Amino acid sequence: MKALPLFVVILLVASPVLAAANPGGIAGQATAIDGTTTAQVQPPTNETIRVLDIEESSLVRSTVETEYVDLGPSLDFAALRAGGQIQTRASINRIESVGDDVSLRSQLILGELNRVEQRAIALQSDQQSAITQYNADELTARELLVEFARIDAEARDLDERRIALRELAAETPDFSIDSGRLAALERELDTFTGPVRAHTAEVLTGKADPTRFSVRTSQSGVVLSTVADDTYVREAYRGDLRDRDESGVSPTEALETVSENYPEVWESRATQNGADVVGAGNSYLVRINHDRGQLYAYVDSGSKNVFKESQTRPLDTLSRGVPESEIKDGINLTVYRTYPGGPLRIQLNESATGDPINANVTIGVEASRESTLLGRTGLDGAIWTVSPSSPYTITVIRGNAAVVLTVSPTPIPELATNSTGSTNTTTDVQPTASPTTASTA
């Protein structure tokens, strides 16, 4: 299978939303592009994993478009990164320069921490402003992605500074910073980072190939998704599902919220220890490794809703969606329909023999009347992308032969409780049966 283009695997280092999936259960074999045989997870049953998304009634704008390397943002990201490192180093030097003066050292640490917290508040305003401007057609989708990538990069730099301040505080006699405060700041900075935003920066700086991104927005929410390096990656943020009340949820309740909203994920945890929860302040992060990928779900303490998620799912673990086919001029074109922004597989085969066809595929959204070249299907006759939010047309031309198929996306597999406030699935979550890690670090 050929995916549109490379995705940089992001390891869990400082910000937990950046982990890449590592599913187990390898079985079967597949033929790679170069003809070699490789191990592959067998396709699962056609059961769709639920996702945090935007209801159609709240959707303001949606698009799918390809982004390329761009020198302007690339230079901006480099300057931002360098500036953040300089600022962090200057803060550390300023604190360390006071020597054994514990009182002054403590004041400087707290002052720097206050500045990081204030900047986190400013990033929240920046994010909402970007969504508002995009919805008002004052920003293009490309400009919105650039701004999200910038916010992502700054949030990561701020988290590095948070970690440095935590370490300086630990080295200071008779002084400490409340661990809950540090963890709450980490959770807040998580709000502005995500694997799709990070990959956007990789594309814009030329570290990854051009990639198609799906962008969907509401008044205060955004859903981003892409297919890269044989992985489907998505992230979603719903500001309307937050009330920032810090007193409403325990770690066990956060786990229950996630198990109820993602029953398929919960039931397919890689191990009984395949879920943990980290929380402080006004939200909890629940991390689950399962047999079809990885889920990071954020639960708001006040509303008790999942308000943010990121999912990474290798393509060979995905169900292929709802197929629709068209046969013409000896070409069998099959489109495995999926939900808006979901992973979309397009397959070409010889109608007579079933052999895969390596040919160019274009996609056009009905409303725009424009077509975009997706690329060639490869030796397996397949190509992956992300689904538009409205009806779209797939076109394949091979010599004098052509086949055209117009289809619509399928309904969004919405979370079980966020939209209705009542659960569709009841799951008994017992800490003794499903051990978790609850912490404030």
UniProtKB/TrEMBL annotation:
InterPro entries: DUF7094, DUF7096, Fn3_arc. Residues 5-208 form the DUF7096 domain. Residues 213-318 form the DUF7094 domain. Residues 412-441 are annotated as: Disordered. Residues 417-441 have a biased composition (Low complexity). Residues 324-404 form the Fibronectin-III type-like domain. This is Uncharacterized protein. It comes from Haloferax profundi.
